[in-house]
Amino acid sequence: MNRVDKIRERIKLSRIEKGYSQDYVGARLNMSQIAYHKLENGKTQLKVEILLELANILEVKESYLLACDE
Q1: Which burial class, exposed, middle or buried, applies to 25 when counting CB atoms under 10 A from its CB (0-12, 13-18, 19+)?
Q2: Which residue has the higher pLDDT, 56 or 67?
Q3: DSSP string covering 12-61, please?
Q4: Domains of the chain with bracketed CATH
Q5: Structure pTM?
């Protein structure tokens, strides 16, 4: 698994642990559930601004999402 895949996996796991739906997180990011699904599953490029906002929404450190914390 490459680093970007690991980041996406941590985003997904953090979302599931919080009990948040893709629809909820997408709405918080001002995007549709489909757009969020594509982002989470690697069909859309993950931008730094989105990653930072996801850390805020999911209440995790950016370093965790960036797969720096093991």
Answers
A1: buried
A2: 56
A3: HHHHHHHT--HHHHHHHTTS-HHHHHHHHTTSS---HHHHHHHHHHHT--
A4: 3-61 (1.10.260.40)
A5: 0.90
